[in-house]
Amino acid sequence: MNITVYKFDPSVDAKPRFVSGEVPFTPQMTALEALMYFHQNVEPVSFDYSCACRLCGRCAMMLDGTPCMVCVTPIEDGDHTFEPLEGYPVIRDLIVDKAGIDDKLSLIYDRIRLEPFTADTYNSPRNWDFQHKTDLYAMEFCARCGVCSAACPTVKLLGAEYAGPMQMIAYAYRHVDPLDQGDRVMQAVSAGLFHCIECGLCDEVCAQQDIHHVDIHRMLKEAAVQRNLKPGYAE
Length: 235
Description:
The protein contains ten helices and seven strands. By secondary structure, the protein is of the alpha+beta class. The strands form two sheets. Strands 2-1-5-3-4 form a five-stranded mixed beta sheet. Strands 6-7 form a two-stranded antiparallel sheet. The longest helix has 14 residues, at 213-226.
């Protein structure tokens, strides 16, 4: 099969270029395996990966125009193009700079406590609402890869007006955390929650199949509507 790879080093290159080469296809081959063969036998290319099992999110990139984690994405015999994940500055070739979004996510995921945290607080049964335990467990496995936000048409259209599905997962995670005392619904609304059109592309590209992005957005929206937080643009 013919593989085409995006090459660009901002420190020396005036513009990106594409390099193509043949990679032998094998049944059940992943896109990561094809890229590794290209790197080792056709031309060296900078890319990132670690776990190779959809946990770290480091191998997220565009494959034939669709964002994915290449470590778990099967590839078929034919022509394929690898490009850096959309929406992020390119460091080199297929490696992008996620430092900005990682910093934002870290702030959101930090648990907010408005009163002292004690053993009684943790052990009190009234603090544990198991209604959302399945969602909470699923969101634990968000790899923060950025694939969902790279696929989102609203992110592409509105930019900073809508934080994107990856950040909404973070707000929802703390919203259903019984020990978090932050107003995560208000934060999500302020980050453009109601700009989500519920198209489902985030669900289609997400490698963590237990995370249901559209349902999570709806949960946050319902909580916002109950508190009369629905913004005027969503009427």
